[in-house]
Amino acid sequence: MTQSEARRKDQSLSSLALDPELLAEELAAEADLDPLESIGPDEQTNDSQAVARACDQGLVWLKGGHDDRLQGLRVFCEHRDPRAIPPLMALLDQPCPVERMSAVYALGRNPSPQAVEPLLKLLQADSNAYVRKATAWSLGNFPDAPILNPLIRALQIDISAVRLWCPGSLAEAGSRSPVKADPAAGQLLQSLRVDSEPVVRSNCIWALGRLFEQLVVPRQQEMVEALVNSLLHDGEASVRDEAKIALEQLEDPGVLARLQTLLDEGFIG
After folding, report:
1. Does 27 share its domain with 87?
2. What is the domain-level CATH number for residue 192?
3. Residues in contact with 11: Cβ distance below 8 Å, sequence separation at least 6, in sequence order
4. Residue 61 CA: distances (Å) to CA of 14, 17, 56
5. How large is the angle between the packed helices 148-157 and 178-194, nearest 10 degrees?
6. 241-262 pLDDT tens trace
7. pTM, to two decimals
8. Are 173 and 184 in contact (CB under 8 A)?
């Protein structure tokens, strides 16, 4: 999926919270990795104590003025703490879009069932694209909630910055069952055919790869044909590369033989 892999650690809490693109980039890098899972038991004990102190301070900041709230939001974009849910929910109504956006990301990091309905409302109606973009990402952390149709609609009609994040969240929602996977895949295939933004098409391919095992055979076959078509005909090299990777990762002997034939005959490099 087209996301930044580098985390920028030289930013202060407040400057990071004030930069929507940088905040989105950092959180995207963290989306599939809990840093506490990558360290040993002794380090984890020490780190847990530091996290507890950071969360205590973050809760204090959330009760302060605008600048303090931004710093508190930054804390809970990194860490999980159930005590943060009520103040984060309250900040979804702030007039400042950066505060709303940061609260949305923080709720993605700290998912709670009570946040689903407010987040869906923001995805559908918030006037700020950064807030809707954040919501499209955060809803992927609520895969069992009724997020499928709102995300499909956003992928159909919203601006490219929001559409960019919808495929990954659709993959999360669709991965729960074949019943959810099929409509998610149907929209991803449609967007792969018609979306004007290469990065959105690439993310649709990535998401389809995540859903493949949940799909019925006819839909799997449709997906393979769509990926081959992108590999051969998409005008953007990055999309063609993504299609090739996705096809290879299926590890299907028939698909791999087809790729080899296309390579041998000079249709792909």
Report:
1. yes
2. 1.25.10.10
3. 19, 22
4. 11, 13, 9
5. 0
6. 999 999 999 999 999 999 999 9
7. 0.81
8. yes
